[in-house]
Amino acid sequence: MPNTTKIVFLGASSASFGLSMFRDLFASPVLAGSTLTLVGRNPETLGRMTELAKLLNARSGAGLVIEHTTDRRAALDGAGFVINATAIDRNRLWKQDFEVPKKHGIRHTLGENGGPGGLFFTLRTLPLVFDFIRDIEELCPSALFLNYSNPESRIILALGRYTKVRHIGLCHGIFMGRDAVAYIMQMPRDDIEVWGAGLNHFQCLTEIRHRDTGEDLYPRFRAAEQSFDPDAWRFTRRLYRAFGYWLTCSDDHLGEYLPYGWEAGEKGYDFDQDERWRGEFLTQLNGVLAGTLPIPQWWTEPSGERGAAVIAAMLHDQKRFIESGIVLNRGVIPNLPAELAVEVPVTVDAAGVHPVSLGPLPDPIAKLMLMQASVQQLAVEAAVHASKELALQALLIDPVVNSAVAAEKILDELWEINRPYIRKCV
C-alpha cells in the first residue's frame, strides 16, 4: 500500500463532526501528501468548511492536499478511504421520530438508535448508504468505508450482510464510559483503561484497570459509586447495581433499547440547544475565517475519535490497537448472534480490521442485549427491502413498543413522512 492516499469525507458540511474530523486528520504529519476531498450537498456550507480545513491544515503543517466538491462520484474515483457522517434532514426528521411515537403513547428517550425512531432512522438512512456503497464498489472497490452515521449497529449489520466493501463503524461511546467511571472514582481519565464489548451505545465494561499497574479498579469503583451524587447517571447506575457491570455510554442512549428506558428521561434530544450551538459555531467560524477572531486552541487538538488513527494504521501498516469498533459479530462475542453488529476492540493494519474477542459476555448482560438483536436484524431487512410489513413486525417485537394499536398508527404516520427516502437497497 502506498504511503499517500485519497480520503473522501462524505458529510463534510457537518459543523460539529466536520471540525472533529479535521482536528484528528491534522493532528500529526503521518498523512502528509495525501488528498482530503470534502463532499457536501450545500455549496455554501461546504465552501466554508473547506476554508476551515485549509486553514487548520496550514496551521498544523499536516501537509494534506484539500479539495472539495458536490459531485460524490467524482470524489470517490480512486479513493482509499471513505468517511461517512451524513444524515438526511437530520433535526427535522429526528424530531418527528421522537414526537410521533410520543403522541401515540410510546414512552421513550432519544428516538435515534432504538424504538420506533431507530426503525425510521434505519429505513431512510440505509438507501442513502447503499448509494455510497454501489459507487464505492464501482469506483474504489478496495477502499475502507468508515461509518459515523447513526444508527451505527444497523448500518454495519446491513453492510456485513449485503456488501463485500470493507467497512468499520466508529463511535466515542467507550471513552464516555471511561470518563464516567473516572469521574465517579475521582481519578484522571488517562490513568484508566477500560475493556468493553456489546452493542453500539450498549457496551459492557467487562474490565476497568489502572493503565500503568494493571490493577483491577472495579472494587474501587464499586466503593466510590455507593456514595456518589445520586442524581448522576441514575438510570445507568440502576442497571449497574442490578447487573454488576457499567454499561455505556449514557442514560438516554441506554434507555433507547429497554422497555423501561423512559425512566432515564422522556425529553428527547435538545434540538433547541443544538440549533443555538450551531448558530454560535457559525458566528465563531465566520470570525476565524475573516481573521477577526483567533483560532480556538481546542480546534487544533485531537478530538479523541479514532478515524484518523484507523486510516494511518492501514496506510502505514502500523498494527494499531483501536479501543472500540463496530463490526459484524461472526463469533467475536460468542453468546450473541453471529449475524449482528457488535462493538468490540479491534486491531488495524494494512490487511484491514481485525476484531478482538474478549470472550463471552456475562450471561445476564448477554440476555439483556439479546432483547435488541432480533429488533435490529428485522429493522435492517425492512429497510433493505423497503417492506412496510417487515417494518410493522420490527415495531411489534421492539421492547420499547407496548401497544400494537400504537405501532400501526406510528408506522402509517412516519412511513408517509419518510416515504421520499424509503426504497429497496438490493
Automatic annotation (TrEMBL):
Pfam families: Glyco_hydro_4 (PF02056), Glyco_hydro_4C (PF11975). It comes from Rhodopseudomonas pentothenatexigens. Residues 197-401 form the Glycosyl hydrolase family 4 C-terminal domain. The record marks 112 as: Increases basicity of active site Tyr. GO terms for biological process: carbohydrate metabolic process. CDD domains: GH4_alpha_glucosidase_galactosidase. InterPro entries: GH4_Enzyme_sf, Glyco_hydro_4, Glyco_hydro_4_C, Lactate_DH/Glyco_Ohase_4_C, NAD(P)-bd_dom_sf. Belongs to the glycosyl hydrolase 4 family. Its cofactor is Mn(2+); NAD(+). This is Alpha-galactosidase. The keyword NAD applies. Transmembrane segments: none annotated. One of its GO terms (molecular function) is metal ion binding. Keywords: Carbohydrate metabolism, Cobalt, Glycosidase, Hydrolase, Iron, Manganese, Metal-binding, NAD, Nickel. Mn(2+) binds at residues 171, 201. Binds 1 NAD(+) per subunit. Substrate binds at residue 150. Signal peptide: none annotated.
